[in-house]
Amino acid sequence: MLLVSGFAKMSSKTNELNTINVFPIADGDTGANMKVCLKLPVRNLLLKPNDNIMTVSRELAADVLLNGQGNSGTILSHFFVELAEAVREVNKSDMSVDEFTSCLIKAGVAMDSSVPNPVQGTLISVSRDALLGLEKQRPFATLDVLLKAMHKSCQIELAKTPDQLIVDGVKVLEKAGVVDSGAQGFAYLAEGMYLASIGELPNVEPRLFHTATLTTSDDSPPISVDHTVCDSKYRYCTEAVVMLKEGVTPNVVFDSVQKAASQEGIGDSSVFVKGFDMVKIHMHTNDPDQLFDILQPFNRDPILKKEKVEDMLDMRESMHGDETLDLADAKFTIMGLCSYVLPKSTYDLDELHTLPIFGVPSTTQEPIDMRFVSDEDVCVLLNQQRHKDTAIRYTTAAPNPMQLKIEILAALTKGKPLLVFLFSADKRISATGRNTMVAIDMLEDEQKKLVKVFVHGWTFYEQPFLTEAIKFAEGGKSIDEAIEACKEIGDHCFSFSNFVTSSSVRKLMAWRPGIFPEGFTVEDNSFIAFGLPVTTRDVVMPLAERVGKLMTVQNKAMSMVDLQDAEIARVKDNLKPDEKLSKVIVQTIGRIDIGHKFLQKMKDANVPMMDDVELSVCNAGIFAAVVSAWGEMAAVYVVKKV
């Protein structure tokens, strides 16, 4: 209950912690990362109650090591791993308040060991100094007295952070007008634990542990923060969990990583956590593969237990950048697969309406609304799917007509015509399309007149049609003008490359065998690129034939790098002398860095592109975990004659 209460208190402040996050880079994810660190571990404590503190602390430590991510989440996981080690040394199934005090102090002493160069005024120093401060106050008569002292000590140390954290001679927290976000999260955790000890549990949201929770309640007042005080020369927040080979010690792994960081400059912001037979490494880097390549020789399995790559620059832009979507003067509203396929940093998804699609895990059979699953949850899920012992089967479920009617009515409240995008209205191909058409028929006559449906036929490759419609809406164009522009793309200018592993192909063959050519086979451990010729089409392909073209093999290779090179060569070769790419939209599965590398390779290969070509890279959401695998990607092209 200490952990449930502490997590609930910290979780309720997720938005605040994200907002005040400025160091080491203002990517706005401190609260989210600390929440992810504890969400599943605390939930597991509730699902598997145990009154043996050694067992509980050990299982918690193993879970947080796997789930902790980002600077704050990884360092928080280090605290609980060290706390578990201190509990193990006591070697009792239960313990006195004084023994627990000693464990907390030992965990505080160990906080510095999580990073090569501990920085004052951060989660590390605040948790360390707050816990060490308990030594002078002991003994504590009861648990609540101990936790009250811990909470008070955290508050005292937290207040010091604006004066302590100095970067290049600048007190960055003081300049930004905040305290350290990770330290604040730890203080909230301590406060929640204290509240539990005196029976004043904070409000626990019913969806606190729900997989598909994106937002959190936050009663904090608006905060004014200068998010420009810190920057990073590295782009990707990268993490890995290594299952140690026999005879390999954690220090050998840590030393190898730190040597590459200090001597070869592959990254900074390193955080190390060791637990049982595995270790966790966090680093900011420009090339995640460099870190993964260093770690793989120490790993006992063919692939690392966990990988995570996040684009910090994209996250910062999404959190604090200028709004790039303004539909205030638009003459129509848009509904489609918006939140699944559009980058959040570029488009304000609140201005768009997304068709609900549900993922159904075989374990619970509880439909998950894919619109509201956080990026952090997707990362956890994708890593589960990478390993046979944790992978589960997912199916998809379409919304029913009444659910869709409610969504359509919500979109119509703006009093504007509504443009709905579907890949198919054929009930044999798309249940979502079929039910959307039924929902429209359920509307009043005047409402029906406001709804127009555009069927493009290219399944989930909807990005170019949505972005074109958005451009027309921003420009004050009519809904009919937008439809004509989208029709031109779908009929004549659309193409794609889908980079898929052989394992995913087999999963797709089992899921939708009818979309593959008769007699289709795939080689083990290979990579396949499905796609269309990258050129304009004079003959319009009927909608019914478009689905059948999606699994047309264009290239095969034994590595993703070779497959990318082959596809870039194909794109360049396909384009006629009077053709150039006007859009390239890359959607990646977990490894967003792979998408950026692909675009850079296209530029280096001098693939013909318009001067104002639109280039974007984004990570797919939970739907990717249903039909794709970690490290895959798809590139959508729009070709224009010049």
Description:
With 642 residues, the protein is of the alpha+beta class. It has four domains: 2-197, Serine Threonine Protein Phosphatase 5, Tetratricopeptide repeat (Alpha Horseshoe), CATH 1.25.40; 236-317, Alpha-Beta Plaits (2-Layer Sandwich), CATH 3.30.70.2730; 333-485, Rossmann fold (3-Layer(aba) Sandwich), CATH 3.40.50; 490-641, Hypothetical Protein Tm841, Chain: A,domain 3, CATH 3.30.1180. Helices cover 44% and strands 17% of the residues. It contains 25 helices and 19 strands. A six-stranded mixed sheet has the order 16-15-14-19-17-18. Strands 4-5-3-6 form a four-stranded antiparallel sheet, with helices on both faces. The chain is globular, with a radius of gyration of 26 Å. The termini are far apart. Residues 211-220 have low confidence and may be disordered. Residues 1-195 form the DhaL domain. Its EC number is 2.7.1.121. GO terms for molecular function: glycerone kinase activity; phosphoenolpyruvate-glycerone phosphotransferase activity.
Based on the coordinates given, report the CATH architecture of the largest domain. Alpha Horseshoe
The tally of structural domains comes to 4
Q: Kindly report the spatial arrangement of strands forming the biggest sheet.
A: 16-15-14-19-17-18
Give the biggest sheet: 6 strands, mixed
- How would the global form be characterised? globular
| CATH topology (fold) name of the largest domain | Serine Threonine Protein Phosphatase 5, Tetratricopeptide repeat
Which CATH top level class of the largest domain fits? Mainly Alpha
The fourth-level CATH homologous superfamily of the largest domain is DhaL domain
Beta-strand residue percentage: 15-25%
Query: What would the average pLDDT be, to the nearest integer?
Result: 87
Counting H and I runs of at least 4 residues, what is the number of helices?
25
Chain oligomer state: single chain
Radius of gyration, CA atoms, in whole angstroms: 26 Å
Helix content: 40-55%
Keywords: Kinase, Transferase
GO molecular function, one term: phosphoenolpyruvate-glycerone phosphotransferase activity
Protein name: Dihydroxyacetone kinase family protein
InterPro entries: DegV_domain_contain, DhaL_dom, DhaL_dom_sf, FakA-like_M
